[in-house]
Amino acid sequence: MKKITFSFLFAFAAFSSVFSQHLEIIRTGPAGNHSVNDSTLVLYGLVSDSMLTQSLYVINSSGSAMTVNAKREVVSEVAGSQSEICWAGTCYSPSTTVSPSTETLTPPHDTSNNANTFSGDYLPHGYKGTTTINYEFWDVSNSTDSAHITVKFIITLTGIASIKDGGINFSAPYPNPANSAVNFNYSLTNVESANLKIFNLLGDCIQTLPLSPLKNKTTVDVQSIPSGVYVCEIVAEGCQPVYQKLIVSH
Question: CATH for 20-156?
């Protein structure tokens, strides 16, 4: 019995070792650092943008050095757009899906160390729509020790004073750039309720405000929002979401 028990425990330990996970994907933002393993991030952009970049850090939590590689898998892509990856200090052409170079991650690593940075770049080339890409990182000596993330790049129109879609009419924000407050004119037709959401370019929703169909204007206090470019979305049940670009400048 003791021999059987020992053998079982040994096999279990070996199994656990093979399938243990030591790679962690970290995204930094205004709210701090976040682990984003196995999650989906949304990055908003405009057709006028030349490139959108999702920057990430890859952390090795094991007790020894690990040689890590990265790859890109396109799930769906807007025709005419392109994507590329930057890993191990090099950015590769859109035709490269697996990084030719590896990165050796020696713990402890943190987000102040640029040696473990990764970026997934998306070039819309003036085309709107949604492109979905999976990114995966793995230990080259043990491919089961891996981490992955999905990023949706959503490109919308810009330079339009009024966007109409379904029962939503959403005007461009004013003043824009905004310093302390920004105004939005809108109308909701056959819509019971809607929300105005403000996203930073990392895809984080930093504010959500309810909109009433009985009103046609809302004012948002942006004094506490850091200077930068933001995407504003009105979403309502039964309607496609509509977007506008906002610049905050203090």
Answer: 2.60.40.10
